[in-house]
Amino acid sequence: MDNLAGLMILLFLAITFLQSGYDKFTDFQGNVSWLKEHFAGTFFDGKVELALKTVMVFELIAGLLSIVGMIEMSISGGTTFGKYGAVVSCVTLLMLLFGQRLAKDYDGARTIAIYFITAVLGVYLLQ
């Protein structure tokens, strides 16, 4: 329990990305349908399914690494997997930010920035 803030950030990232990845997996066609409209006329027009699968995989990896990181911290005090989880979370959020900016969804991009600050703080605390 030496790094309680790190544990809380990893729990936040695990909840965020596992829930989001699970939602994308269980309602893939619903997400594709909404995103095709969202990205119509952009670079992702016609590439929505591949982009969604890519983001879903990154989200699930980020969430799983965050959980493994919490376990590692609790057992040995190590931060390797937690740091990887936070870094993959940052990369995932940058992909999402790119998509939101491309779609000119500036409110969505602003929301992602809040999550990104938390993930970067996790990278910093878990060094």
Automatic annotation (TrEMBL):
Q: Could you confirm whether the keyword Transmembrane helix appears in this record?
A: yes
What is the name listed in the Swiss-Prot or TrEMBL entry for this protein?
Answer: DoxX family membrane protein
Topology in membrane: Multi-pass membrane protein
GO CC aspect terms: membrane
Where found in the cell? Membrane
Show the stretches that span the lipid bilayer: 50-72, 84-103, 109-126
Keyword match Methyltransferase: no
Q: What is the lineage of its organism?
A: Bacteria, Pseudomonadati, Bacteroidota, Flavobacteriia, Flavobacteriales
- Keyword annotations of the record: Membrane, Transmembrane, Transmembrane helix
User: Which organism is this protein's natural source?
Assistant: Flavobacterium amnicola
